[in-house]
Please model this.
Amino acid sequence: MNKKHLDHKCGVFGIMHHPQSLHLTYLGVFALQHRGQEAAGIYGCYSDLAQDPFLMRGIGLVHDVFDKQVLAQTELNHAVGHVRYSTSGSKQSQSVHPLIHEKRFAFCHNGNIPKGDVTRSHGTDSEMLFTKILEGYDPAHPLASLKESLIGVEGAYCLIIMTPEGLCYARDPWGIRPLVLGYVEEAPVVCSETCALDLIGATFTREVEPGEVGFIPFKENRLEVDYLPKSSAMSQKCVFELIYFSRPDSTVFGHGVYETRKELGRLLAKSQPVEADLVMAVPDSGVPASLGYAETSGISWDVGLIRNHYIHRTFIEPTHGVRHLGVKIKHNPIRDVVAGKRLVLVDDSLVRSTTSLKIIKLLKQCGAKEVTLAVSSPPMMWPCFYGVDTPNRDELIAAQMSVEKIRERINADRLVYLPLEDLQEYFGEKYCYACFNGKYKVATEEVTSLLEE
Ligand code: SF4
Model:
């Protein structure tokens, strides 16, 4: 998938009661880098509020933003961190999280709050929500006041907030984005994905429940939990977390991500069998599904494309004179593997089709006899309003043309998708499939105006 056009908004991390909390938060946000590459920030504080807190944030990747020496030399008890892909609001440094209020409140948000009683007048959705929570905050009852502020807020959110009393967290009642709880030694950790727990040697305890609000005070290491009003019918976990967004080494919504992607490849091979000589992946996102496809189809698997991992957003595009070489900058086929073969090229999703078009052209230039593009998710036809940056409908290729027309456009010999019914049968009704079927279960202003168009 061309990640340039489909991104997460954010990853969040928080840890309490650990003397190396700052350094562990750095490692935590490093593990969550795939959830946001535009900006990063860490806020840390001591239990003794007389001492000044620590704050470091900026535009760029985690390893660019933080001064590792300062992090290693600063011992703090409590910290929160954030990686951001800025879509709602500006990319200016003032909207980089954690958002800070009077040095003592640090706010980290993953998701999108398009509606509710959060007034959308100025600033980002996160800033609105932060203001609302601050206005309702009661230092004598941090958890109860947080809960009160969140009742009626519609949209996707996972929040981690450091307050002068301790760390608060919350997950929206639909459970759209993931949030997990674990412990490193005795220290509690809350973060977006289990891969961040793994990196710091923490033990995964459980998922934060949809609608759960929690509080860990500075005064003692204990966890208070409460729940926002919800019903089980509301569950709308983002199926795309499992198809593409989350790291394959994470466990998300109770599913091992890698194994789930492999299973989607198996389902794809069952429903869309193809006669071919070789199964290969669009690296890296298509690898697990391609292995599943090969396993079920019995067709051999190999690495047919090499991806350059060192391309950053700052990469200087080739000048006009050498632009024709640009395609190979990111992916280059292995001629000996693909020449003369009928290929099944597996990817996890197809957004605009630009990358697929280029890759198929390259494979054919290297002598591939046939290329079937096999996509381990259904056609993506609708934008996401719940914390993922998707293109508008007029840029989503499957919303604009038939499967046959897309096949022609990308010059594939066949184009097959995993049917939506297979995906829904596998995951069940507690998931959001709106980017495939347009059924947005969490009503938002953006959804209403889209459907009125
Ligand atoms: S619309 Fe798609 S990407 Fe957005 S939450 Fe639903 S399944 Fe996830």
Summary: The pocket of iron/sulfur cluster is lined by residues 176, 238-240, 384, 386, 388, 432-435 (CB under 6 Å). The first helix runs from residue 21 to 31. Residues 89 and 124 are 5 Å apart (CA to CA). The domain at 259-308+326-431 is CATH 3.40.50.2020 (Rossmann fold).
